[in-house]
Design a protein that fits this description.
With about 350 residues, this protein is mainly alpha-helical. Helix content is about 30%, strand content about 5%. It has 12 helices and 6 strands. The termini are far apart.
Length: about 350
Amino acid sequence: MKSAWLSIVLVAGCVDYMTPDPRDTLASLPSDVPTPADNPTTPEKVALGRALFWDPILSGDRDVACATCHHPDFAYGDGLAVSVGVGGRGIGPVRATNLDAPRTPRNAQTVLVTAFNGLTLDGAVPAEEAPMFWNHRVASLEQQVFGPIKSDAEMRGTSIPEEQIVDVIVARLAGIPEYAVLFEAAFGAEGVTPSTLAKAIAAFERTLVPTDTSFDRYMKGDDDAMSTSAIRGMHGFIFQGCARCHNGPMLSDFKLYELPIPATHGGPEVLGEATGKFRTASLRMISRTAPYGHNGVFENLSEVADFYHNIPVTTPLLEGDVEPPLGGGDDLLAFFEALSDGAFDRTIPDRVPSGLSPGGP
């Protein structure tokens, strides 16, 4: 198998791919984060959402929080091929040592930048329609909240039926005086409901947008923001065809594709209306969010590059006059780093209103 992880020779006159303007294919993130009309972001909602995000009270057995699988130490992912929810202990790769705990079938995508899901070269979609999960089975950050809570492997466990878990969680929260105060501050007389629970967490997640990446500054006109190596890597990335799917501000066309990615869990996967089809992953924060693929089968970016180099040319995605992309060595890595070096909220609260351990045991 020919390795794709090779440095591209960029001698003047050897390969001329520095001519096209990258801004025709790629773009910086907008300064304004889209929000639904019925859920404008407020400091009170964000404060409540942060507490809920870290509180294991949202899980059936009170042992898993949203932050368990979306932790700032791992760029709001978990560093695992597929996540370990209920029954696990610890944060990040250490949870993989819990051999008796169930695994989810999916790699935990970072929550960072999900506020812009659906944003492409064609423009943004309404926040209420933003596609979520690997197969777009729900729309909006508000609706995404309920997926993990209802999942027996992720947060619910088996002690509470799926059709009851949300009502149980709401009752728990309403019975905690500190939460009652926080919900009133955020939502007034509406109080604790499934809707306000989801709106608060979504409001917090919309603040998790890395700022001031080298890539964004470069795309906004600062020619010195990216290194020469990163600029070469960006041009090579476009020239080799990677930007056919990884384009726009999110470096994703947000389309679903079926690719021959190696299976790690066996059997066909059917979720929602998409059968074996998964979204083009955003390359935002790509250097911080290994492993890769919907099932985490690729441990590092070298393995991803090798896969795309050796993918059959009969794959529908690659039909046409664009060859399977080669890797770009150090230059491509430098470009990926420029997509991943923005600052983001790394706050880990000392406590949560339930009194449980923030992030789970």
